[in-house]
Amino acid sequence: MWGSVVTSLLFWGFANEVTTVDEAKKYYPLFGLGANVALIFSGQYVRWVSRMRDTLAPGVDAWAVSLKYLMGAVVTSGGILLATYTWMLKNVVSKNEEADSGKKVTKKKRVKMGLKESIKYLLRSDYIKDLAMLVVSYGMCINLVEVSWKSKLKLAFPNPNDYSAFMGNFSSTMGTVTLFMMLIGRSIFQKFGWRTAATITPKMIGLTGLAFFALNIFSGSLGPVASALGTTPLMLAVFVGAAQNILSKSSKYSLFDPCKEMAYIPLDQESKTKGKAAIDVIGNPLGKSGGALIQQILIFAVGSLAAATPYLAVILGVIIFFWLRSADGLATRFEDAMQKET
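Request: output the structure for the sequence above.
Response:
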């Protein structure tokens, strides 16, 4: 919830206010570069903290020491963030306001919406409804696959230190891949347009997610293949699931998020404010909770997450289908809105 409200609603809301569509196509894929560079280093920092536990003297609370190092890094990063934001307010935003001081600006009254009003607003506009479908679909799909992957990950790495070290390398790899995807994302927008960029993430999640589920469903018959690769079916599923997670999230950060934020720009101020608040505050939690609810129902019905895997694969395919259909419909409406502006 904190990430949805602070990161999406505040940061992207500010970016949408000061960025045109043409600028967004160039710079939105690059906005996350700094975050993903940090992800590379933070992953290695977590790995270093995990390995440091092995050198502690007997009787020392290893987790308490690790927590101090991790929270120290969080506090330091937060201080740098606040200092940077303060500098921007004084040296960037204030100058823009001075430049616009001669222009007459009409302030619009902010409309507060409750949960019921937000849902009604989502259903009233086809444009906003398709945009919400993209957000909900992503949340559900990534939850369906990630929960199954992490259950395999815990089986493969029962030792907390090994698990933490693996996740540190995983974070660094994700940062590197996302950095690369953001660099090529700009070219994708310029050469192929919004429609193509918007369909890459669901296709990526669909293909890699179904491949991961297939490894779990047919793990019994994949023993010889895994042995030939020098591993086990469990580790094979873990690495394919890791690749799925990395590719899915890197395409999300580099393409899906910029596409989503660009779609708000042609809207009028009321639609932009209400639509974004409703989608970011309701759509994101709904997608994640919807995926969790589906898994809980299936586990209750069939007895375990492993037994529910075939059904999860089918549900994933259905969600991807509706996601692609909504993306195609939204692309048409987005292009029409852009033509009206020109």
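The chain has a mean pLDDT of 81.
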